[in-house]
Every structure is written in C-alpha cells, then in structure tokens.
Amino acid sequence: MISAFRAFAKSWVAAVLIGLLVISFAVFGMSDILQGQISSSVVKAGGRSFNDQDFRREYDQWRQGAEQQMGQPITPQIAAENGVITGLLEQIATREAMAELLERIGLRPGDSLVADQLREIPAFFDPISGRFDKNLMEQRLGEANLTSDRFIAVLEDEIAQQHFDAGLVSGLRAPRAYSALAAMLEREERDLGYFQVGVSSVEAPGAPTDAQLQAFMEENADQLRRPEYRVISLVRFAPRAQDLEGTVAQAELEERFAFRKDTLSQPETRTLVQIPARDQATAARIVERLRQGEAPTAVAQDLGVEPVTYEARPRSAIADRKVAEAAFALAQGAVSAPIEGDLGLSVVKVTEITPGREPTLEDVRPMLEAEIRRDQAAEKVYERTQAYEEAHIGGATLAEAAQAAGATVITLPAVSEQGRDQEGQPVQGVTPKILETAFDLSEGADSDLTELSEGEYFAVRAERVIPAALPDLDEVRPVLTQVWMQQEMLSRLEAKAEELAEAVRGGQTLEAAASTLGVRVTRATGLSRATAQPNERLSEDVLVNAFGVAPQEVFTARDVRFGMIVGKVEAVRAGDVAQMAQAVEEGRGQASMALFRDMSAASRLAAREKIKVRIDEARARAVLGLDPEVPASKAEGNAPATKEPAE
User: Fold this and answer.
1) d(CA 401, CA 448)
2) In the prediction, which pLDDT does 459 show?
3) Which of 105, 448, 490, 567 has its CA 20 to 30 A from that of 474?
C-alpha cells in the first residue's frame, strides 16, 4: 500500500493535484480553511464559545424535564417544529452575553468563593470518610457529560450572576405610586349588564355535504393528519437473570476486598466545638471557662463570636489541619490549649468520640459478591454485543446478527415518533432514544449498535415506513360531521350576537335587544379584578372583555355553556379607599420584585446589544441529527440573532 502511495506521488496526476492545492491555499488562505474545520461554536458571545457538546447537554436537560412533565417522548424534530431549538439558542446567547459582560467589568468570583460553593454539593463528598473527593466529583460530572473545568466555569458564571442580581435588588423598593396604580386597577368596581344568545336563537345548520367535509378536513389538516408510523424490529442487550447467578471465586473476592478495603473502612469520627479567639489572652479565658464546665455556646455568645460545630466528622472533614490534629489527640470531654491554626487562633472541646472500624471480608462479602456478579454480567453482555457486531459488520441482517449473538428480536407494532400506536395508545418497550434512532433510518435499514443506558445496548431496523397522511373521509365522517356542525352553529351564534350588539351600540337598550330573543337581561354589580372569578354564570371570556373595555362599551363573548353573551359595562367606580390603602402596602413588595425583574431583563438586553453574539442554528440542528438547513421562515426570524452587531 505504501509503495503504491509513493508511486502515485511521483506521477503527473499527483503533481497537478498538489498544484491545485497550493493555488487554493494562496487564493483562500490556510487560516480560513482550518477555521472552517476547527470551529465548533453553536453560540459565540465575545470571547466565549458554547460548543456542540454544551448545546447537546443543554438540549438533553430540557428534553428530560419536558418528557417528565408531558409523559411522552419528545424528538428533536418535534422540538424544532415547536420553536424549542430557536428558543434555547436565544436563551443561551443572552446568558453567555451577560456572563461575558460581567467578566469584562471585572465581576468574577474568587477561588475561595468557588471552593465554598463546591463544599455545598453533597454529591462530591465520600459518604464514608465525609471528605471532599475530587475523583468522585469527576465521576459525578462525567455521568452528566461535564468536565470539572466546564462545571467550575458554569459555577463561576452563576455566582457572578447571583452577586450582580443581589446588587440590583439590595435596597430596591418601588415607589408607592407603583403599587397605588396597581391597587386602583385591581380594586376598581364595574357593573355589567348582559343577556344570552343561545342555540335556540338561530336556525340549526343542515348536515354537511362531502365537499364541505373534505374542504373542512383540508383546512384543519395539521390537526387531522396522522403522523408517520414505523414498524421496527428491536434487539436489546442487557444482563439476564442467569448472568447474575454465577459463582464468585474466593481468590477474586479477596482481591476485590483488598482493593476496596480503604474505601470500605469507617474512620474515627468526633463531635467537637471550635471557638475562635481574637488573641492569646481571650483564648486562655475560653480554655479556663470550658474546663470549668461552662457550655461552649454560652462562652461564645459572651465573647460575641460564632462557634463552629462538627457533628461526628472524620479528621479530614475539619477545615483547619492544625485544629484537626489537636482535636484528634484529645480524650472525650477534654478541652484543648489555645491552637494557632492555619485559619486563626481558637480553642476546641471534644464532646463525643466514635472509634473507627475496619470491616472484615465476611462483613462485606454479600456486597462484594453482588458487585463481582454485576461485573461478570456486564462482561457477558459485552461478549454478546461483540458477537452481534462481528456478524453485522460481516453482512448479516439485524435478525441474523442477533441470532448469532443468542439475542431475541422483537417486532413492534406501527409506532409514531411520540411512542404511540395507530390507536393512540403507548407502545411498550420503546424509549425516546430508540425512537429517535429508528426514525433516523430509511426503510429497510439497520442502525448501529447503540448504548441505551449503562450496561445496556440496542439496535433497530426500520421494517416499514407508513407516511404521514390525512385519514379517509369515511373513517372520520361521524366525528368530522359533529365538529363541522358545532363550528357552523358557533359561527351563526357569533353573527347573531354581533348583530344584536350593533343594535345596542346604535342606541337600543339591552332590554329591547334581549326581548327579540325572548330572554332577560342579567346584571352583575361590583365586579373587581381582585375578586372576580369565572363561575357558572360568567365565563372567563366574559370577564376578560368586561375588564378590557371602556365604560358604556358593548361587547360579545363566549358563554359558560355553548352560546354567546352580549354585554355592556354600565358603570365604573373607584374601589373602597380603605381596601386600596391596604393593597398599596401589601403590593409594594410585589411591585419591587417586578421592578427588579424589569431591571434584570433590561441588563440582559443591554448585554445582547453590547456583546457580539453569533448563533449558528444550522450547526445546532446538525448536532441533534436534524437537517442543518433552517426553514426559510425561521431563518428570516433568526436573522438579527446571527448577525454581529457593532460594539
């Protein structure tokens, strides 16, 4: 092979190709070519870059929350069609622009502040020793597809934003006029007169023709179109019950015990109280009072200091190394001499000691045997996946490769991208990841073997694709007829209500207009925004209109039941003065928070205007496995976000 390359390099063809490359570098520049290959920014804000992996992680976090809330899988295609991708990119761009602006003005947390925040995260502490474990932190972050550097950078941004927000809200109090205006609006009282326009007020529509139903179906195609379905074959590789029943050799058990012994041991723990001292004289008085039996909290309170209490903590969990050494040299109930620690002068009293304990092999045998069996089962799963891969790469179909690996293939009924069958019921045995993989395949294609979760893998084959389509008219005729007739009746009711409303606007009284229908006028008095609620008489649509129009104005709205309302705001009065005065004071805090939110939003808007922000939505779509080309309507909408405004 190498000889062939060398021979080719000496040929005239190679000379021409190399010449063309040299010319292209000269014309376009080497840096431009490399930049196109290396750049991986989905969002770029000033000097900050949000790359493919960052965006994928942000999207996955959103998806997991949305799926839990909605109770069904959400694919990238669905997310894109509903504007989620664009919305996420805009949020990220604003957040990164704000972080860049805060960094430029010098608002960054110090290392000690970041360290303090890390110590607040229990997941990073060894549950046995009780101390911060960097390896455990890396493991936990790795499970979330995060590096420690990236996590700390995000943490720094959050701390900076919190301090910036704290600066905005500190001492912020909205002027009383703000809450006064809100109180006046909320407590304003309105008198409403109205009458109903029911189904007996208009002629009932006749049954629709096929042509009318077909046109109605096409007008509502987005709601009626059945989604694309796929018949898929699925093979999964996971530990089997018999995989977990293997025997564990004594030698292997002893080797695992020797490896895990340090982490399984329980260190000695102590409960102690540490009292800071300003100087040696104060420290000596603390020692004397504690040894006389005074309570540490009382001594600390007299001196105006805050005691530090450690409850059953190991030596490694005590912040000051010298204090830890002194405390763990004391007997239970003993008081130390003044300690000149790394963090200052203090005195310690030990109140309780729990001796450490090293486990024996017999103590932890069940746990270690279970661990080893899980590892053995994982190895067996790996062997089956390797057998599958070898057969599949060798040209076997999914079913043939599964048979070679001793795995079972199941063929699922036609399923939509949302995980439901053609009757709308959830299909068992599929997950969002399986569906996403299956819907990325063309008909008759097999997927690669993909990790589903830790220790579990799957592959799918798209056996048949059933395209999205409108149902046949005969299938939906009864339901469609009912909906069409309801729509037609509602249109007639709206027209009748508007006709009567026009008569009232022209000078006719509500009573006169209502009498043409043989109905009475009803009046609701003293309605206020603070107390009015939809009920069996007044619908939400009626209340929205009643508080949204001017005095003496006439409106139409949907009734509580199927029908319409013609209403008129007959009077508007100021609310009770005493109630408004109370509402002013009660609402001042809410007004202050609203003012803070407005200021915070304005600061983020200013950051977007100040910092150069570039959004690559095509790249974000590609990261999620979508067509990189942004639809024309969205591309136009995103134009301002993708250009680089001048600073």
Assistant:
1) 12
2) 94
3) 490
